[in-house]
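=== Structural record ===
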Amino acid sequence: GHQMAVNVQLPPEEGGLGGSVIIIDTENTFRPETLAQMVKGLSAKNGVEYDPEEFLKNIHVAKAYNSNHQILLVEAASELSRNLKDKPVRLLIVDSLTAHFRAEYVGRGTLADRQQKINKHLHDLMRFATLNNAAAVVTNQVMSKPDTFFGDPTKPIGGHVVGHTATFRVYLRKSKGEKRIARLVDSPSLPEGEAIFSVTKDGLAD
């Protein structure tokens, strides 16, 4: 999330979208100091002196305290985006999508209500992305399926609603040391594939 929040602000000729970012933070994971370090790393990599403060000014972080608040923040994001004409919103991140819903809707009896709310929330995010010509990115956890004997013994939390609504789904998992593996598991136009990358203090690296 931090790396995307940096990259999207770069001008198009440097691989960005020249836009600002809204982050709905449900698990208190946003760290300004991490982002500032990534900007410094990008300066060294591109040979351009970027100012971390300028990047931080274009990131609007809202903390969601429960699932209802999380849903309302998408409406607030729409209002904010209308006021950011100089640096239009090109990225909306929800980190993470299902944490509050999991904590609040416990037991099978609440499953239908939970799925209905997640479904509405996802469609609100898609509408925001369409109206603002922006990308909406959500993070989600997986849980283990002990009855799986073949293939991957994990499945995404949120079930089919999350799986079917997302346009692209990327499964991230840890490898040795700083290495991570990103696997594209769902895309309307691209084949499944994997890429290995490293997480460093200066950002993501091949």
About this structure: The longest helix spans residues 111-132.
